[in-house]
Amino acid sequence: MRSALLVLGQFASITVLLIGGSWQLPWWAWSLFALGLIVFVWAASSLGSTNFTIMPDPRAGNTLSQRGIYRFIRHPMYTAVLLCGAAVSFGAPSIWRWVALGVCVVVLVVKVYHEEGLLTAKHPDYPQRMKGVARLVPFIW
What we know:
By secondary structure, the chain is an all-alpha fold. The chain has one domain (about 1-55, about 65-130). It has 5 helices and no strands. It is globular, with a radius of gyration of 15 Å. It starts with a helix and ends in a 12-residue tail after the last helix. The mean pLDDT is about 90.
């Protein structure tokens, strides 16, 4: 139930980010948005189809990916969402987008901890294997 609520919160905030203001973005915001899309595609291709899920719960038979972008970031798809959200929130600000970005940050941080707990339960070596790999932002967290 907690996983479903986190996904609902994530997609609700993404929806508001997408429809909560203008799409007349300056070049730098489009660049940041494009970076978010690149990170997402890189993450999806690095993860592989057997591991991909929108839920934080690991799929049956999943493996811990340390390929591609997963060598540098544990949750790059969340990073991609935040990059795109920041692009539209800073590039064409509105109160709706600022609230949605704040909600999205909180939801994704909670989702990171929840997902890492589930991964540790399924793969007891997860914490050791993830040492030195940032959660969302390389060299920061």
